[in-house]
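Q: I have 247 residues here and want to know how they pack in 3D. Can you give me a structure?
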Amino acid sequence: MTACIVGWAHSRFGKLEGETLENLIVKVATDALDHAGIGPDEVDEIVLGHFNAGFSAQDFTAGLVLQADDRLRFKPATRVENACATGSAAVRQGIRAIDANAARIVLVVGAEQMTTTPGPEIGKNLLKASYLPEDGETPAGFAGVFGKIAQAYFQRYGDQSDALAMIAAKNHKNGVDNPYAQMRKDFGYEFCRQESEKNPFVAGPLKRTDCSLVSDGAAALILADTATALKMRRAVAFRANEHVQDF
């Protein structure tokens, strides 16, 4: 594998008042180029990871990356969608372009804006990432899909509520010192383990602390081939790049 990360940028996650999807994309693309120390004219290809599924009326979004700089005009730009793996799939496409010698430097951006959508529509949009003939009417939306999976796991391997609480507590604790995290509060194991008014069951055995929040945010990577990366101020190599699909 020949690709390396040579620059990156990241917005905060959360309800980002006053931001648009375009603004988020432009900011992280600009910041990632600055972080890598390269000009937009050096980019050979652009890949945008954007699930969307109705959250934005602007469904053709690959071209929004070009708004970061006029010098990105006429660069090949492609949008990638792969449900919860959309961002990873976009990175993979960038790596493959470099491995195929079709590009030397690739700008990869991932972005979503979800919080401006009314609650009932959020659940409907997210369920589009499921198999609709079976899961399209699932109560509690996509949390309900994972709730069914968790319930089946419990039936096969026993009650795993302790493990779920440990995972939730760890994740919330990690968020405290992460300036990009949406929620920066350490709830502790006991709060995550016990059902309460502030931590009710949402779907099956999953409580509120087991479920992710609806969020806005964006991130970007600059990928370069190894020969180019070795001449730059930083380079992080990939140890693996695999993609499997299941049903």
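Q: Anything worth noting?
A: The chain has a mean pLDDT of 95. The longest strand covers residues 216-225.
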